[in-house]
Amino acid sequence: MKPTALTEAHHYKCWTEVTLRFGDTDALGHVNNAVFATMFEQGRTTAIFNGVESLSEPGTTFVLASLKLDFLEEMHFPGTVRVGTRIASFGRSSLKINQALFLNEKCCAVSEEIIVLIDLETRKSTPISDATRATIERIVRI
């Protein structure tokens, strides 16, 4: 996907709404940059770690390995941010995720994250099974 396509809402199938809080703002009156990362985390965990069913086999979990975040527009309180999430690709033991933040239908930031499946005992990466991949594809509606 081209970087400009990341700013287009129709590329995202999974959505999470996050209500802005007054405490999210900084001395300049706009939403603090750290809050952008928190909103991406909320969208990612809502989409992928749905709390209803395990997304991987027992003894494994996904961890965030990389986060690239591009700020495009300021955001101001009050408002409700829509976080779009999509799986960009699967690797042997990782997922590449694309996300975007929209406020009042305007794209304010985009991100690309890599999450890696690890073995909880060894803390080393482990291959994503076909069953885990199928579960993620079903939940995130690729």
Textual characterization of the structure:
The protein is α+β, with helices and mostly antiparallel strands and 142 residues long. It has one domain (3-140): Thiol Ester Dehydrase, Chain A (Roll). 19% of the residues lie in helices and 37% in strands. It has helices at residues 33-48, 130-140; strands at 14-19, 60-71, 80-90, 94-103, 106-119. Strands 1-3-4-5-2 form a five-stranded antiparallel β-sheet. A hairpin with a 2-residue loop joins strand 4 and strand 5. The longest helix has 16 residues, at 33-48. It is elongated and about 45 Å long.
Write a brief caption for the model.
This protein is about 20% helix and about 35% strand. By secondary structure, it is an alpha+beta fold.
What's the SSE blueprint?
Blueprint: E1 14-19, H1 33-48, E2 60-71, E3 80-90, E4 94-103, E5 106-119, H2 130-140
Antiparallel strand pairs: 1-3, 2-5, 3-4, 4-5
Domain count: the total is 1
- Could you describe the largest sheet, including whether it forms a barrel? 5 strands, antiparallel
CATH H level: which superfamily? Hotdog Thioesterase
Please, what is the average pLDDT?
A: 91
Fill in the CATH topology: Thiol Ester Dehydrase, Chain A
Please state the CA-atom Rg, rounded to the nearest Å.
16 Å
Uncertain segments are none
Distance between the termini: 14 Å
What is the level-2 CATH architecture name?
Answer: Roll
Shape: elongated
Strand arrangement, major sheet? 1-3-4-5-2
CATH class: Alpha Beta
**Helical residue percent band:** 10-25%
* Count of DSSP strands: 5
